[in-house]
Amino acid sequence: MMRAFGGRAFDVSERAQPLRRRAVLVLVLFALASSCHRAPHAQRQVAATVFPLYDIAQRVAGDRLQVRLILQPGLDPHEYEPRPHDIAGLADADLIFAVGLGLDPWAQRLARAAGAGEARVFEIGPLMDPILAPAGVVRKEPLVDAHFWTDPIRALRAVDVTVEALSNLDPGGGPFYRERGQELRRSIEVVHAGILRGAATWRRRRIVTFHGSLFYFAARYGIEVVGVVQPVPGAEPPPQHITAITALLRGPDAAALFSEPQLDPQLARALARETGAVVHEVDPMGGAPRAASYEELVRRIAHAMDEALR
Length: 310
Known about the structure:
Blueprint: E1 2-5, E2 8-11, H1 16-35, E3 45-48, H2 51-61, E4 66-69, H3 84-89, E5 93-98, H4 106-114, E6 121-123, E7 131-133, E8 143-145, H5 152-169, H6 174-199, E9 206-209, H7 215-221, E10 224-228, H8 239-248, E11 256-259, H9 266-275, E12 279-281, H10 294-309
Parallel strand pairs: 3-4, 3-5, 5-6, 9-10, 9-11, 11-12
Antiparallel strand pairs: 1-2, 7-8
């Protein structure tokens, strides 16, 4: 668990985390293996709740598994209402990758409704050393950020976890999944190195995001999320909160302002008109044509930072 101190997040249980991750992973994978009681299929089926997990899973799986995305690009996971088609599509899923950490609680309900069973929902987020967003930035109390994949180093861990989960599900494909996982890791490492070079040129270091989704990216590349426009997705923030955000967007050390395509941009635009700030768009969920891979998702975030912070 992370603690906020002096505007930064620190891990107070760093030594325990690797052992805890391995222990939890072994237990989860054992449960998954024990739950595979259906008759054999010509091709096993896997699902993922959001695009970043889907892209990793389908690139590791290749043509050995059928991988399905539940939440279609452009939709907000906080406001998602499952459709009958979504439930029916999961009936044969042997494994459902979910984020957890409060982002996609509907995954368990979907699994139950489809008859897939809760044991087949594998929440990756709790294994990724979740960041506790500092109190006062998001709301009065600290809040865990679920968007761990905006940090490519954590995405590398997610690749490893996915490889192990799929190898457990399909032991005969283990070498195949490991090889593809290594290819994906190399690609992500190249992207990370490029962002590091770009981050060294950013003169501004303070940002205001529309939603609390960039704490991992900010921590990895040396910037600070000083405010969040909409602390609770779908809920209008109180006037005093808007006043505080407005102050952050003014003055010689004004923070850069970011919106997200999955959320209504009207409030961000109103803040821009009030303060003279420029609204820059970032897409932390991906899946749209301009962010059709995990690597492109992170590159697009970095490109938005280039425009706003240089």
